[in-house]
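Example record used in the benchmark description.
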Amino acid sequence: MVIEIDFNSDEAIYMQVRNQIILGIATSRLREGDVLPSVRQLADTIGINMHTVNKAYSLLRQEGFVTIDRRRGTIISIDEDKIKAMEEMKQNLSVAIARGWCKNVTREEVHELVDEIFDEYKRD
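Model output (structure tokens):
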């Protein structure tokens, strides 16, 4: 698993780690049951503080993307509660669409963008 951090980004490093792991799951580079590197290993590989990796892993656990097992480590374990996931997605999309609406983004442009993004995550 390769995680690239943009140290010049305004986005917090732990969020970059979290988001890249979620994208890895969505694109099937990471699958149910895969074990992530230990906090220490990932921190050393990326060149960041262990507490930053720990914060990303904890957030992923809270969000239902991983489980943490003392013996095996951090394991991809996707929460199957689709209704909860859909509601969270709706909330996030509502804000994004409202921001676009304020900038005169049309319904058609939103649909095209969603289709383009969704196509990136198609599973074979």
